[in-house]
Structure formats: C-alpha cells, structure tokens
Write a structure and sequence with these properties.
By secondary structure, this protein is of the alpha/beta class. 40% of the residues lie in helices and 17% in strands. It has helices at 4-15, 22-60, 70-79, 82-92, 102-117, 219-228, 273-284, 333-355, 375-383, 386-390, 404-407, 424-445, 475-479, 510-529, 535-556, 561-580, 626-634, 653-659, 667-677, 683-695, and strands spanning 121-130, 135-136, 139-140, 144-158, 161-170, 185-193, 212-215, 234-237, 268-270, 290-300, 302-311, 315-323, 364-369, 391-398, 410-414, 465-466, 487-493, 609-611, 699-701. It is globular, with a radius of gyration of 30 Å.
C-alpha cells in the first residue's frame, strides 16, 4: 500500500496542467490553471490530513521505557523539569555548604521548605549532634565549622612601610579561597615557596618561621611540617584538582582546600596556579613577596542536619530511598547542587502525578534524604538503624547535570559492588540504555520517540556509561558490609571544574538533568512496584546477564587458564545470586548455588571470618579514617593490600575484602573473588589484611 506522502505526490503530479498554445489555448490554459489550483488545494489538504493521521498513529504507538507502562513513561517525561531543577541549583549554589555551617543550614532549610510546599509526608529535619567526640559507628563526628571573614592581600613597600596593594583572596567574594577547617589567625609576612612541602627535604635551607609558605599540596599535607614543627604563620596553597585529561589546562582554577579537623590548627588560603607561578617567577628573580592574612573562623559543637520526607506507599515497612549529598563549597553547582535539586524535582514530580491520579500510589514507600557526604550517611545509618532495615534499595545522585561540552563529563549509571549481587542495578541499566538510545537517535537524526529535551537545555547525545561500580560517594556506605543495601549510582565523571570556583550553574545542561532524573525516577518507580508477576523483569535480567558475560569473555582472553577458570566460577555464582536478590522484594526464584569454591593447601587460608556487630561503617569515613586511627593506636603495620591498586576499574581491594566477610567465605574464597573482580592478588595479602581487622576488633573467626 503506498504511503500517504507517495499518494499525495501522485495527486500533485496529475494536477499539473500542460501548457497549450494560441488564444484558444490561453483560454483553455486559464481554465486549466483554475482547475489545477483547485486540485492543488485539494492535494495540500490531503497532505495535511495524511500528516495528521501519521502523527496520530505515532502518538498511539506505545512509547515506553523498560519496565514502565506507556502511561508511566509519558507521565514522568512530561512532568520532570530540567529547567525547574536548574533554578533550584542556582538557589543552592549561593550557599557555602560546609558540614554544620550556617551555609549548610540555609541550604537544608531551603530543601525542607520545598518538601513541605510540595506536599510530601513525614517531612523532618534530622539533627545528629556533632562535637568531635561523639562516634557514629566508624565515623567520628566533626564539629561545625564557620568563617565570619577572611582575606589575603599582597602588600607593596613605600618609604620603608608596607601596605595592602592587591586583594588576592576574599571569603566574602569567594568562600572557596579559605581552606575548610581553618582557624582564626593573622600575619604580615614574607612568602616562602616550599614546593610540595610534604617532606622534610622540601624545607632544607629555608627559614619558614613566622612566614607564609607557598605549597603545591593540599594544606593538610603540609600543616604539621610547616606550621607545627617549623613555626610557619600560615599556608597558601595552589593545589590542583583531581587528575583527568584536562588536568592543569585551566590555570585560573582555585581548588577547594582542606585542613585536619583534629590536628595542626592553622589557616590556609587557596590560590590559582596562575597566581602561584607569577609569585614564583618574581621570587626566582630575587623579588620579595609580602602578604597580609586575616582570618576569623572557628569550629564549635554543631549537628549533622539531614532533611528527609516520604511519599507513602501501601507498604510503609519497606522503602526505596533516593539520596544525594547536600554539602560542598559554593558554588558547587554540579557537585552536588545538581543531585540535590534532582531528587527534589523527582519528589515533586511523583507527588504531583499521584495527587493528579496519573500515577497510582506505589506499593512501597519512597523516601528522599539529603545528608552531608559519606559522614552524614554513616551517622544516619548508625543513629537511626531503622532506615537501613526498611530500605530495599538506594538510588544515589551525585553530579548529574554537567554540560559535556563544558565539563567534559559523561553520565554514569552504576550498580552495587561485585560483593553485593543484585538486580537493582540491572533495572537502572536498562532504563539508562533506553534513555541513552533515545538521546543518540535524536542527536543523529533529529527524530526520536522520547528524546527528553528541556526547553532551556542542549540537544546533545547523552553518551552514558552504563554498568560497573565505583566508590566515591554515599552509595558506597549503603552497600558496605555493615548494611548491604543494593544501590544504583547516577553521576557525572569527569568534571574539569569539580571542587573549584568554576563549578557554576552556567555549566549545567537542563536536558542532561532531565534525562538523569528520568533514569532515577523510573528506576525508583519500578522498584517501588515490583511484584511476582513481572515476566519482563525476568527477561531483562537475562539480557543484562548476557551483557556481563560478553564483558567477562573479553576480559578472560588476556587471563591465564587458572585465572579464567576462577573468573567463570565467580561469574556463575554471581549470576545465581543476582536472581536470588529478587527475594528481597518478595519475588522468589529458587536456584542452587554452583559448587566448586576454591581450596587451599594452607589450612590457615581456609579460615572463615564474620563481621562483629560493631562498629558499623566503612573503614574510611569523611575527614576521618577509623582504620588509620586505630592502626596507629595499636602500633600495627599498614597491610600491603592497602597499597595494591585495582587491576580493573571499580572497587578497591580493601573495601571489597571486608564486604566479602560473611561467615561463609574462607580467606581463600575472598582472595579468589577479589582476583575475579578487582585484580589478581596473593592470598597472603588478603590474610594479612583480615588478620589486622581481627586485631582491631572489626571481624572475628566465624562461630559454628
């Protein structure tokens, strides 16, 4: 059957008049033209009608994301607003959101006010005391830190007197120029370049007493050597950002600086590499650089403020959590005002759609949480253990809106660590692939069923990275062996402006925001409504399993025969456990666990460990390492496993080794699993690390 457009073209062709000759021909031509015009109008009417029919058919076609109905897909796509989320980013980025600070409190109040306005239930500001003495599991609480004023000026000399000439840094103008945890102090002093400043050799032949030291390192790395031991008056740092392909390209970036909360009190200012190198060139030419610094800042007892609210489901005993971290320096637009605005927009969207009857009330409750990064989550799960008990899965958003043309970042959609097999990641991966495909189709052809564009955003492809696991945000706390909550992690990486004064709202693409929010909201909605009848879910799990098998096949090519056998042994057990993870949601798929775990000639490696009931949490928190603290107090050597870099992208050896302690796996089993997922590792290194954890009271030999 010919298409409507083909038929219309034929009508147009038959309506075209031939050109007659002579006077009679002219009369006939006039009549023919009149008839031709009528035919042309008829043809145009047919074309318009045909196009309308085609559009109607397109609208009727079932456009839907995996595991969502067409109605759910349309509802989420139409209500989620990338531009609305970007406006919230602009508001949050005005606040310098250091843990426990006035800026953080203002941001938390903004979130709480929006939640109330949006009509969510159980809106609460959780307040957990933080004074530097209280412990929440493995996290030592850090007191609130606030600055009232701070400035750094370069001085010039006239007639033997020094006076301020150029203001180099100002807390009022750019709070990021004052290193976090700086204390009050003042100095008028010469600047001395100590290079890295993190080794005693960097100070050879240099008198820094009473001076300000210029360092390429983070302030915390030089405070003991420069200030505590050698009497420097303060620190000026030009530490650069995380290393990526664009590292060092922008010499004007000013990096977020850190000092210890616990030791070597001092102040530090952060400057750009361009400023530091200008000083270095002048000092190399024999010029004297004199600065004046003034800081009014202090630490005091405070609290971790954590806004939270729910959309109640039919089942109030089980929750799907959407999480982000609310802290970070101003402007901190992508990191992480974007994730905070994202889950606030998701909360608004789902609440509105349910209230309007466009979505039914979910089977399970949806909870939204805004803690301080990592330390706030560790504190929350220890202080309010019911949160982890109720949570079936956590979806964490951290940096979700960077315009890739500016920040160079890709959106990552990742799942749980290999030590925690779960189908939860597969749900997010499937929706992520679909969104990525829609975005690519639109970028390539200008046409897609649902490209998820924001009016104020770009039309770029998404180029999402789907699958895998990486550490670096609160999702690793939920998934850690203390709580073992499956996770979905949505995040940008890299971002050339992360943790600098140029992480601004202008870098945010509201289209990317909308797509990231759709992935997270869609996954949350699916997980909140899964039931035992979902045949499509079973098919999806099979497809994602095949995807993993293909990746492992490519990896196995470069492995030895023994390593390859271990990889496939691990893979078989992993896929069975992914299927079994449905039981967490009340869906049972009984399948036997494959046999054939490894054995060892050394009986010592056949020992099984189990985790003690306390302390709960990862060994390294935020601003405090429980492991390093206890290791130093016990006088124990640092295990070699901590120095071994991962062979493949993903989790670290130490994180996964502790996660794999379950009272069933032997030391050899854990070493085998690490070799399959993180990288080849000697079993003796694993045994040494686990023995250290036993001595520190984290684990114990399994009973029975």
């Amino acid at each position: 059957m010919p298409s409507a457009s083909t038929t219309s073209l034929r009508i147009l062709a038959s309506a075209s008049p031939t050109r007659p000759s002579g006077r009679v021909g002219a009369i006939r031509a006039s009549s023919a033209v009149s008839k031709g015009a009528r035919a042309m109008r008829t043809a145009l009417s047919l074309i318009i009608a045909a196009l309308a029919v085609a559009q109607a058919h397109a609208a009727e076609r079932e456009v839907r994301a995996p595991l969502l109905t067409p109605g759910e897909t349309r509802a989420l796509a139409s209500e989620l607003s990338g531009d609305g989320a970007k406006r919230t980013i602009e508001a949050l980025s005005l606040h310098h959101r250091m843990r426990g600070s006035k800026g953080y409190a203002a941001a938390a109040d903004l979130v709480l006010s929006r939640l109330r306005d949006q009509g969510l239930s159980d809106v609460e500001m959780i307040r957990l005391p933080a004074d530097g003495k209280i412990f929440y599991g493995t996290q030592r609480s850090r007191p609130a830190w606030n600055a009232r004023s701070a400035g750094l000026w370069e001085q010039s000399e006239s007639r033997g007197r020094w006076s301020d000439a150029v203001r180099v840094a100002s807390w009022a103008d750019q709070p990021i120029t004052l290193a976090q945890d700086s204390v009050s102090g003042a100095a008028e002093a010469d600047l001395v370049d100590v290079g890295a400043g993190s080794d005693a050799a960097d100070y050879a032949g240099k008198d820094v007493r009473g001076k300000l030291v210029l360092t390429a390192s983070q302030p915390e790395a030089v405070a003991r050597l420069a200030v505590t031991e050698r009497g420097a008056a303060g620190i000026v740092s030009w530490a650069q950002n995380q290393r990526t392909a664009w590292w060092g390209e922008d010499q004007d970036l000013i990096r977020w600086g850190h000092l210890s909360t616990w030791a070597d009190p001092t102040f530090a200012f952060m400057v750009s590499p361009a400023q530091a190198r200008a000083w270095q060139q002048r000092m190399a030419a024999g010029k004297r650089i004199r600065l004046r610094a003034a800081v009014d800042a202090r630490r005091s007892p405070g609290a971790y403020l954590i806004p939270t609210a729910v959309i109640p489901g039919e089942d109030r005993a089980h929750e799907i959590v959407l999480s982000c971290h609310l802290d970070h320096p101003s402007p901190g637009a992508n990191d992480n005002a974007s994730g905070c605005s994202g889950i606030l927009q998701i909360a608004r969207t789902l609440q509105r759609l349910i209230a309007d009857g466009r979505l039914k009330r979910p089977k399970r409750t949806l909870r939204f949480i805004w803690p301080a990064e990592i330390e706030g989550t560790i504190a929350l799960l220890n202080a309010r253990p019911e949160f982890a008990r109720r949570t079936l899965a956590t979806i964490h958003l951290d940096m979700i809106g960077g315009n890739s043309e500016l920040t160079k970042g890709r959106l990552m959609v990742e799942g749980s660590p290999p030590s925690l097999p779960s189908f939860v990641g597969d749900v997010g991966f499937a929706i992520g692939r679909w969104v990525d495909g829609q975005a690519s189709a639109f970028a390539d052809t200008g046409s897609a069923d649902l490209p998820l564009l924001a009016p104020g955003g770009t039309r770029n492809a998404l180029d999402a990275k789907i699958g895998g696991f990486s550490e670096g945000s609160d999702h690793q706390v939920w998934a850690e062996g203390s709580w073992r909550v499956p996770v979905l992690y949505v995040a940008d990486w890299p971002d050339r402006y992360i943790h600098t004064q140029k992480d601004v709202p202008a870098n945010i693409d509201s289209t990317k925001l909308k797509r990231a929010m759709f992935i997270a909201a869609g996954a949350a909605w699916v997980l909140a409504n899964i039931d035992a009848e979902s045949r499509e879910l079973v098919q999806l799990l099979s497809a994602e399993s095949q995807q993993r098998q293909a990746e492992l096949t490519r990896r196995a090519i470069s492995l030895s025969k023994a390593e390859s056998a271990n990889l496939w042994r691990w893979s078989g057990a992993y896929e069975v456990d992914v299927a079994r993870s449905l039981g967490r949601f009340g869906v049972t798929r009984p399948e036997p666990r494959p046999e054939g775990r490894g054995t060892s000639a050394d009986a010592a490696f056949m020992l099984c460990y189990q985790r003690r009931a306390s302390p709960k949490g990862p060994m390294d928190g935020f601003g405090y390492s429980w492991f390093d603290d206890r290791l130093a107090k016990a006088g124990l050597p640092r295990p070699a496993l901590l120095l071994r870099p991962p062979q493949w992208e993903g989790a670290s050896f130490a994180y996964e080794a502790l996660n794999l302690v379950d009272g069933v796996r032997t030391i050899q089993d854990i070493a085998d699993d690490l070799s399959a997922t993180v990288g080849a590792v000697p079993v003796a290194e694993v045994a040494e690390f686990l023995k250290t954890l036993e001595r520190l009271g984290v684990i114990e030999p399994a009973k029975g």
